[in-house]
């Protein structure tokens, strides 16, 4: 009787959660500007040959985007990624019924569909939300052990999606060796599916060099050894996106932190009791391999303590939490608390100025002052996307308007242009200035210090 009533409750909760999860990912994809990373994704999807030469990530994500990039507006690609994300979540929840109770499946649905980092990254043209969901599906397929070809396909996608995509596969192999005390055909098959990506990276190192991988990372050093603060900042900073820009309620933060800590401690107790045979030991194998690799790599090669790189770990924690809590009598209370907590902290919109606003502003100023000059400051991908001129140099353009005394509009997308303004000898007379985060617009002209203000 109780189980039947809870089944109805699960359905009611899912009826509430599913529309919210879909809407949060699909609502107004063009509301905010494309970030520099998103523009890079568009660039690589349109220029796949450049992936080999300059990109750190494997090519799979960009190759998936390529046909859509040629057909649709870049903002539509956000919708494509969101739909991919929702499809993977749906498939993961469908598979989870084999290893979870109804309560457990409902908990997993609430955690995934209302996950702040998953929503945040599903609204961007990047691979991180897909990385989370594919890791979840891979862990579920390991526990069901069927269909085997599907696990191999998902493993191949993981390794081709992200530089750390090999970690779930290696962790499964390590877990298998510990349990079986020998190499198995399953383990060998999983290693074989990584050969294409290993070949890809090997060729990059030989023909392109180390700089193609690590030029934009901090250098390695002992100071990048893992400490508690590093791990928490990397993980929590991404679990609560843009925590510095939005007032996240303390209730939500501490409740979510308590959930993660409780799940990990509870799971560890289960591992101690059952040994390496239980599925929870696989989760700790995944977490352990990830942290050990990140620590060694950060100390010896480059610093990779970046929250986005470790987001796939939350898939393991979500799944373990659903398995642990799903059989409890007070599971409905936990589901309600998780639902309310995530609902409060979902903040998928970033406070960046829209690029359309910036260039509309420039066009309106241009009509009033035909001789006004545009100075654009951004990285390689931003120059390619916005002004179609990768050769333009921010400092040189500012130097020209400085020497000519012409009025100009500076559109600064990476924070460098505003810094450059203070390096010139002439004073800047501002007509207009506004700034949000790294995005700034300055309208003005340079005048000699002795010139009186008009």
Give helix and strand order, one letter per element, not per position.
HHHHHHHHHHHHHHHHHHHEHHEHEE
Number of alpha- plus pi-helical segments? 22
The termini sit apart by: 83 Å
The radius of gyration is: 25 Å
Runs with pLDDT <50, length 5+? 240-248
| Helix coverage percent | 55-70%
Average pLDDT: 79
Instruction: Output the structural class.
Output: alpha+beta
Describe the structure concisely.
The protein is α+β, with helices and mostly antiparallel strands and 454 residues long.
Please name the defining characteristics of this protein.
four-stranded mixed β-sheet; about 450 residues; single chain; alpha+beta
Polypeptide structure, described:
By secondary structure, the protein is α+β, with helices and mostly antiparallel strands. The protein has 22 helices and 4 strands. A hairpin with a 2-residue loop joins strand 3 (427-436) and strand 4. Helix 1 packs parallel to helix 6 (102-113), helix 10 crosses helix 16 and helix 16 (280-300) runs antiparallel to helix 17 (313-325). The chain is globular. The N and C termini lie far apart (83 Å). The model is unreliable at 240-248 (pLDDT under 50).
């Amino acid at each position: 009787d109780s189980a039947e009533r809870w089944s109805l409750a699960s359905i009611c909760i899912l009826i509430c959660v599913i529309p919210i999860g879909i809407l949060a990912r699909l609502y107004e994809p063009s509301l905010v500007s494309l970030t520099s990373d998103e523009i890079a994704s568009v660039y690589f999807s349109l220029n796949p040959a450049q992936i080999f030469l300059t990109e750190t990530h494997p090519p799979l994500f960009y190759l998936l985007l390529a046909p859509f990039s040629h057909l649709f507006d870049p903002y539509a690609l956000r919708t494509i990624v969101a739909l991919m994300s929702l499809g993977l979540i749906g498939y993961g929840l469908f598979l989870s019924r084999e290893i979870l109770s109804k309560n457990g499946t409902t908990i997993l649905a609430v955690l995934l569909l209302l996950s702040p980092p998953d929503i945040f990254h599903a609204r961007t043209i990047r691979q991180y939300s897909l990385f989370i969901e594919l890791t979840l599906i891979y862990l579920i397929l390991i526990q069901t052990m069927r269909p085997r070809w599907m696990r191999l396909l998902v493993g191949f996608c993981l390794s081709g999606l992200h530089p750390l995509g090999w970690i779930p596969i290696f962790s499964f192999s390590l877990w298998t060796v510990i349990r079986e005390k020998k190499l198995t055909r399953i383990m060998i098959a999983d290693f074989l599916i990584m050969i294409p990506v290993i070949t890809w990276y090997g060729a990059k190192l030989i023909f392109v060099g180390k700089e193609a991988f690590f030029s934009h990372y901090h250098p390695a050093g002992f100071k990048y050894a893992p400490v508690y603060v590093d791990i928490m900042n990397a993980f929590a900073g991404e679990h609560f996106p843009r925590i510095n820009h939005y007032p996240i309620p303390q209730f939500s933060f501490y409740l979510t932190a308590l959930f993660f800590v409780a799940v990990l401690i509870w799971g560890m107790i289960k591992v101690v009791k059952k040994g390496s045979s239980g599925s929870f030991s696989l989760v700790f194998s995944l977490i352990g391999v990830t942290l050990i690799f990140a620590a060694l790599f950060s100390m010896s090669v480059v610093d990779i303590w970046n929250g986005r790189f470790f987001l796939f770990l939350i898939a393991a924690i979500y799944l373990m939490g659903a398995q642990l809590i799903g059989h409890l009598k007070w599971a409905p209370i936990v589901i309600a608390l998780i639902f309310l907590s995530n609902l409060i902290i979902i903040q998928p919109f970033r406070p960046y100025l829209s690029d359309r606003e910036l260039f509309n502003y420039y066009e309106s100023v241009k009509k009033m002052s035909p001789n006004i000059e545009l100075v654009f400051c951004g990285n390689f991908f931003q120059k390619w996307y916005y002004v179609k001129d990768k050769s333009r140099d921010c400092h040189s353009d500012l130097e020209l308007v400085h020497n000519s005394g012409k009025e100009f509009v500076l559109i600064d997308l990476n924070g460098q242009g505003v810094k450059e303004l203070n390096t010139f000898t002439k004073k800047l007379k501002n007509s207009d200035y506004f700034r949000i985060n790294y995005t700034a617009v300055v309208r003005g002209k340079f005048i000699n210090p002795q010139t009186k203000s008009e």
